[in-house]
Design a protein that fits this description.
The protein is an alpha+beta fold. Helix content is 31%, strand content 34%. The chain has three helices and seven strands.
Length: 144
């Protein structure tokens, strides 16, 4: 009489692996750098996204940046907020969905960008948005 060995379903492993890759590839470090070369000059900005998909740079030409806004994602009780830069033609995220902030943090980031735009004596602005390390951890766990 031989023993039957029950192996786990490969579909579950494939699903976990794909989910882990999705979480890892969706997590990015985002850097916003804005500057004025001279007092009262129009602002130019660069948003850099760095992650497993590589490095992407979005440039905002002088005079195009109009402000920043927050957008709620999720349910009312478990809301998270993303921050977007507003230009004449586009809304550029400075936070991916996985690293969305609390309302307080999103408000601070929006205020920081808008204060920079409204203060012509401030010459530069730099903001850093780290990926959500909890999401990165689970992405690694699902892959391995």
């Amino acid at each position: 009489m031989s023993k039957k060995i029950n192996l786990p379903e490969p579909i579950g492993f494939i699903f976990a692996f794909v989910l882990g890759l999705y979480l890892l590839f969706g997590s990015e470090l985002t850097t916003l750098k804005c500057k004025r070369l001279q007092l009262n000059q129009k602002v130019t900005c660069e948003v850099t996204y760095f992650g497993l998909r590589g490095k992407r740079i979005t440039e905002i030409i002088p005079g195009q940046l109009q402000g920043a806004k927050k957008m709620r994602i999720g349910h009312k009780r478990k809301s998270r907020y993303r921050v977007f830069l507003l230009t004449e033609y586009d809304e550029i995220p400075i936070q991916e969905a996985f690293s969305a902030s609390s309302e307080l943090v999103a408000n601070q980031k929006v205020e920081q960008v808008n204060n920079f735009l409204n203060n012509p004596e401030q010459m530069s602005l730099k903001m850093l948005q780290h990926p959500n390390w909890f999401i990165v951890f689970w992405g690694i766990m699902f892959v391995i």
